Amino acid sequence: MQDFAEAFRLAFTLVLSGDPDLLEIIGLSLRVSLSAMLISCAFGLAIGATVAVLRFPGRGAVIVLMNSLMGLPPVVVGLVVYLMLSNAGPLGFLQLLYTPTAMIIAQSVLITPIIAALSRQVLEDLYSEYAEQFRSLCVPTHTAIGALLWDARYSLLTVALAGFGRAVAEVGAVIIVGGNIAHLTRVMTTAIALETSKGDLALAMALGMVLLTIAILVNASVMALRSTAARHAYA
Q1: Tens digit of pLDDT for each residue in 193-215?
Q2: Domains present along the chain, CATH in parentheses
Q3: 126 close to 149: Cβ distance less than 8 angstroms
């Protein structure tokens, strides 16, 4: 118990003192996860909006697939990206394996289905309210999609934050393609796993506290955005 209390005290000291190694790991984690979120939003929102508005043969199967991919096992994603980026893979010539870029790719692959599926549901519910009006005014599909994306912007921001929260907490995929290399690809989740196995509980707990704080801030932001969306809906 005394050792645990000492580790907790050291963890607080590291956080409050702004330890350089701690800040480096946190900074890389945020850069990787925010980049992955932006890439996933670019693809996921486009896919979700297209499936929400268009009606085509096999649409039901596409929706089932999108919802199923929300539960992609992170280690499987990491393995697939590893095989694609390895020297023997089709993208091996890019030499991206064990770099932050590889980690961004893995996180993007992991959270794009989440953003696509959630945004599809949000936009489809909204489209059902406006479909008749769009048809009566002969609104082009791309214009209708743009209008839906803007009208649902607060709800879609919560979707993006959900994707970010999933990305920043990821460990399985990023450790496979990133390798957890000090000062290059070490992020919060992989550092926590490493430092715990080494018995360095102070750094692991400090990173854990930061990660927990980020999770709380993300959830608080989601709740605030939902409240804002609800107020605009009833305005």
Answers
A1: 888 888 777 888 888 888 888 88
A2: 23-234 (1.10.3720.10)
A3: no
Count other C-beta atoms under 10 Å from residue 34's C-beta. Answer: 15
- Model confidence over 116-160: pLDDT tens digits? 999 999 999 999 888 888 888 888 888 989 999 998 888 899 899
Token pair for 192: 């926590």
Token pair belonging to 2:
């005394």
Task: Supply the DSSP symbol for 88.
Answer: T
Coarse DSSP helix, strand, coil percentages of the chain, rounded to the nearest 5 percent = 80, 0, 20
Tokens of 17: 């003192």
Q: How far apart are CA 116 and CA 159, in angstroms?
A: 9
Is-contact 167 36, C-beta < 8 A? yes
Provide the 10 A C-beta neighbour count for residue 91: 15
Instruction: Confirm if 115 and 159 have CB atoms less than 8 A apart.
Output: yes
Residue type, position 99, single letter: T
CB contact at 8 A, 130 and 49: no
Phi, psi (5° rounding) for residue 156?
-70, -30
User: How far does Cα 153 stand from its chain's mean position?
Assistant: 17
Q: Provide the angle, in degrees to the nearest 10, between the axes of the packed helices 141-151 and 153-168.
A: 70
